[in-house]
Specification:
Elements lengths: L1 H21 L4 H9 L1 H15 L4 H25 L1
Keywords: Membrane, Transmembrane, Transmembrane helix
Organism: Yoonia sediminilitoris
Protein name: Membrane transporter protein
């Protein structure tokens, strides 16, 4: 999990650089982005606490089912307009 966190952290730095360069990250969006750090950190803290208490196999299966449904919905929307 720590390696995955480090990879996500490096990806975040790269994404921040790309958004800053492209103009997406401006003064107007900077304050909102900084404000979202607190709820995101709280969500991560809750996730770390819950992680050890749930069955990992069931979690993986539920996650895959949710991703499958989301993917099928995207295909439906793309085909039906």
């Amino acid at each position: 999990m720590r390696v995955q966190g480090a990879i996500y952290g490096l990806g975040t730095v790269a994404l921040f650089g790309a958004h800053s360069h492209s103009g997406v990250m401006r003064a107007e969006t900077w304050l909102l982005s900084a404000g979202m750090v607190v709820p995101a950190s709280a969500g991560m803290a809750v996730g770390f606490r819950v992680q050890d208490r749930i069955n990992q196999q069931v979690f993986r299966q539920v996650t895959l089912i949710v991703l499958l449904i989301a993917g099928l919905n995207l295909l439906r929307r793309g085909m039906m307009g």
